[in-house]
Design goal:
single chain, 193 residues, mainly beta, eight-stranded antiparallel beta sheet, 14 strands, elongated, disordered N terminus
């Protein structure tokens, strides 16, 4: 008996809710995700690894220097021969230690050139604009980054990139983000020459 009263109460509730519904009503919601999924898009001929061929995307620690700049210390990236496929990569030797078919029945040396494609800075998960950056290979400037985008200053030729960055904006621009969780994302492109 109690069970049938419970079902009856539920049925009345459902019917009452249906009275307010009208055909053609719609509702809209937008879901947002934010951030960058770190990773590497491999090629069939070579792949980018971490130090000593580690198949992981290295993560570094952001620091604040005494002069107020944000410093991203070296992260080592390596261009390595892919003895597998782009889908199932197998880490081989550094690219310059390998050869490729020259198309004339012989082989030729391989080499890599690195460029900077994009830089993004986040504070508490929100993209931040207005902070300029210098992206470097072990201290040698590769690119400058401003609100207008990336300006390639130089390329790095070689298997190993010691990627680092430093903010070039005055400290007051950075002070607004003191104490917040921060992330710096630098996208590089390695091209076989």
């Amino acid at each position: 008996m109690k069970l049938s009263k419970l079902f009856f109460a539920c049925a009345i509730t459902l019917v009452a809710q249906g009275v307010n519904a009208a055909a053609g009503d719609t509702a809209t919601a937008t879901a947002n995700w934010q951030g960058v999924v770190p990773g590497v898009i491999q090629s069939d001929s070579f792949l980018i690894t971490g130090e000593n061929g580690a198949l992981v995307t290295p993560i570094g620690q952001l620091m604040r220097a005494q002069d107020g700049t944000i410093v991203a210390p070296n992260i080592q990236l390596e261009a390595r021969d892919n003895t597998g496929t782009a889908v199932a990569p197998v880490v081989g030797d550094l690219v310059s230690n390998t050869t490729r078919d020259d198309g004339a029945g012989g082989t030729e040396a391989r080499s890599i050139e690195w460029t900077v494609a994009d830089v993004a800075f986040y504070a508490n998960g929100t993209p931040v604009t207005g902070i300029d950056w210098s992206v470097r290979n072990d201290g040698t400037q590769l690119a400058t980054v401003t609100s207008t985008g990336v300006t390639q200053v130089a390329v790095h030729k070689g298997d190993i990139l010691l990627l680092n960055a430093v903010s070039t904006s005055n400290a007051s621009a950075i002070d607004a983000y003191t104490g917040q969780d921060a992330a710096l994302s630098v996208t590089v492109v390695a091209s076989e020459l």
